[in-house]
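User: For documentation purposes, I need each entry recorded in a consistent format: the amino acid sequence on its own, followed directly by the corresponding structure tokens. There are two entries in this batch. Please keep commentary to a minimum and don't merge the entries.

Assistant: Recorded as requested. Entry 1:
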Amino acid sequence: MPRTPNSPSPKAGPVTLAMVARRAGVSPQTVSNALNSPDLLRPETLERVRRTIDEMGYRPHRAAQALRTRSSKLIGYGIRPTAPGASAPVMDGFLHALSQTADEAGYRILLFASPPPEGPDALDGYGELLDLHHVDGFVLSGTDRGDQRQAWLQKRGVPFVGFGRMWSGRQIGDWVDVDGASGTDAAVEHLVARGHRRIAFLGWPRGSGVGDDRAEGWQRAMRRHGLPVRGRRAYSVDDIASAQAAAVPLLEAGATAVVAASDMLALGCYHALREREAVPGADVAVVGFDDSPTAALLSPGLSTVAQPLEAVGRECVRLLLARMGEPARAPERVLLEPSLVVRDSTPALHG
């Protein structure tokens, strides 16, 4: 295709703002005003510059735009270390969904090491990212009791959104969460329909907001069906060996089914059953929570509650961008429904 005398050579590299200014016969500042403050220019000048931009195919440099608008197009997300023996497949899936959604909106997720949010140095990373990288906002996870981050960010006018509710009773800012109680309620309903009445719960120690929420759903459904809960609840940290030990009293008490607060705890229950020469599913039904990649690979496949991570990621980005655009808007909270994935670990009860 022939080139006009003033068009740049294909080998000259990308079109620059200065090149557009020369072609349009204006100053570089005028081109900048056409892009960022068009109301400052006379209509005929604005039209000439815009026409030249279109003809030359000029695309503003994103980094330069960020400097002008004081927007880095970066969203900070703190990664906390995983305890030995534990796994974080849910957060891996969430992070992928979050990153993809942010990318589609023209943003990047900036990962950084984050200590526990209740610790003395919990806020150091957040302050550093604000000072050095000028991040536009933060996505917070692990929003348990004692979390200092929300109040600290709100006081400084920094936009944020939480994946998870604040469990201290005082709700601050926007959040997206999954209704864990609804998930374990559905698990009990499924087991009752399969003929189970002695349904135990294997959860995390009391005081965990997420864990207490999932325990509440189990307890609510049990009471709705008039089923006893006393002596049918055990506690464990989220690792296989601890869960295996915690499941033993539940099995000894005659539970025919166990609802676990995570797939990791459910796997510990599998181990406890096999240690007793019992078969998961065939002898005792087991339901997990999270639908981790391991759940489908176990034998038998683990029935579990799946979290809508793609929807969580989309909603987190949506709420954060809305907060950036309108800082004074009323807080928005989104509670998403999980879904039960039925596999071979919950057959109908016989006998």
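Entry 2:
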Amino acid sequence: MSHKRLILGMTGASGAPYGLCILEECLRQGHTVHLVVSEAGWRVLMEEHGWEVQERERCFTKRYGHLPGTLVYHPLKDIGATIASGSFQTDGMIVAPCSMASLAKLAHGLSTNLLERAADVMIKENKPLIIVPRETPLSSIHLENMLKLSRCGVSIVPAMPAFYHQPSSIEEMVRFVAGKVLDLLKIDHQLYQRWEGGR
């Protein structure tokens, strides 16, 4: 498998395990991941995983620094980072989880921080952008924003696990959604059992 250079954004929706699963699998396979986390995303990591977020970059390096891939952390306010430029070469960007606030900003071309700017670059450069929205129920506003992004070529992968493979844990359900994201980026994986038809 060829080496890939990816961008991962994590925002303030519940569902941090999706982003972390994608990150871990990509690093495990030796890919490079440029990571940016919103302020609300850090709050979710604290609430859902109990992370101490004073030394933010270290939160990730101490957990994933042993993996063979390369993790590049970017502060949210660093609007001059490499990933803010259309000349930066990447194989795609994932926003997982994606809050409805971030979704709305992406749908309307608002770039108030590095995460939003990097996603806006993906759209304008016609590069793969995959978002994993996590909200329920969805309002008409949410659905219209998703439709607008879809029409711009953005792939929408709602955090909807399947059950045909009979998952026995939350981890298996998370791995299914993460695997569907990696499928779109043509990254081979063994995160979930694929459907093989009836017996």
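Summary note for entry 2:
The chain is about 40% helix and 15% strand.
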